[in-house]
Specification:
The chain has six helices and 14 strands. By secondary structure, the protein is α+β, with helices and mostly antiparallel strands. Belongs to the Nudix hydrolase family.
Length: 293
């Protein structure tokens, strides 16, 4: 009984090379190994991936079962009729994880690295049948999220500042749209209203307090890619944009970007720079401005 992880990220799969004592030829397989007596399979995967790649993996709750039989295999120095049951879990590691490296000494693993999935599927990488089967049945995690955003415009009706700019945050390398400027906002927590979520997210991402008004735009977006936690996802976002104004006590406070989140900068961006395209923005920004008039 053995447990393995198929870890796909940014079009690459995490594989380990079998040590020469296991295979004289170069062969790559999924990180994983035998489940010890009394050990939970998910715990075994985490332990094996750590030993073979040096990475801390998070694995899903369910696994796909692969079985195989080798009637005349060598096992512990003798011939044996080996029947193996292999549990393959979907796993993921953080996007900022270090490069893989083998930690175990004198084990069955000689190397660890990320291989392009396209090269593996095309047969350009010598792999075990388990890798081929696991990639054929792997599906990205399906994630749907409702998010609330705040459209905060200075120089709009009742504002009086007259500078015609929009409060935007820039997507960090932990997000799906790295480098684009977008509206401050994020996921609506369970039991939280969109208005409260928008105010909370603005506070977290910019340090400003806002008064949230009516809904001005609703959109949705589907993305296939790597989530901030490193998981391969099919992400569907429901995006609710609400009008907002900076609260009186925050009007003289400069916005400050949060640390360690999916945004790495915050600024009041001139409307003219959005219109002429000199500042790259997420399509949601233009759609919300058009809807708000």
């Amino acid at each position: 009984m053995a447990a393995y992880a198929v870890v796909v990220r940014d079009g690459a799969v995490l594989l380990t090379r079998l040590a020469p004592r296991v295979s004289r030829q170069e062969v790559w397989t999924l990180p994983g190994g035998g489940v010890e007596h009394g050990e939970e399979p998910r715990d075994a995967v985490v332990r094996e991936v750590r030993e073979e790649t040096g990475l801390d993996v998070t694995v899903g709750e369910s696994a796909r079962v692969h079985t195989g039989r080798r009637p005349n295999a060598r096992w512990n120095g003798r011939r044996a009729d080996v029947h193996s049951v292999r549990l393959v879990f979907d796993g993921y590691v953080p996007v900022d994880a270090p490069a893989p490296r083998v930690l175990e000494v004198d084990g069955s693993t000689a190397d660890a690295r990320w291989w392009p999935v396209a090269d593996v599927v095309a047969g350009r990488v010598p792999v075990t049948p388990l890798v081929v089967d696991a990639l054929a049945t792997h599906r990205p995690f399906r994630m749907q999220r409702t998010a609330a955003y705040a459209l905060v415009v200075r120089g709009g009706p009742g504002d009086g500042s007259g500078d015609g700019s929009v409060l935007l945050t820039r997507v960090s390398d932990r997000g799906f749209h790295t480098g684009l400027w977008t509206l401050p906002g994020g996921g609506v927590d369970h039991g939280e209203s969109p208005a409260d979520a928008a105010a909370r997210e603005v506070r977290e991402e910019t340090g400003l307090e806002v008064e949230v008004g009516p809904v001005v735009h609703v959109a949705d977006e589907s993305i296939r890619g790597t989530a901030p936690n490193g998981r391969d996802e099919e992400f569907h976002a429901i995006q609710i944009v609400l009008a907002a104004t900076v609260a009186a006590g925050s009007r003289d406070v400069a916005p400050v970007a949060e640390a360690g989140g999916t945004s790495d900068a915050v600024a009041w961006v001139p409307l003219a720079s959005i219109i002429d395209g000199s500042v790259p923005v997420h399509p949601l920004v233009r759609a919300a401005l058009d809807a708000a008039g």
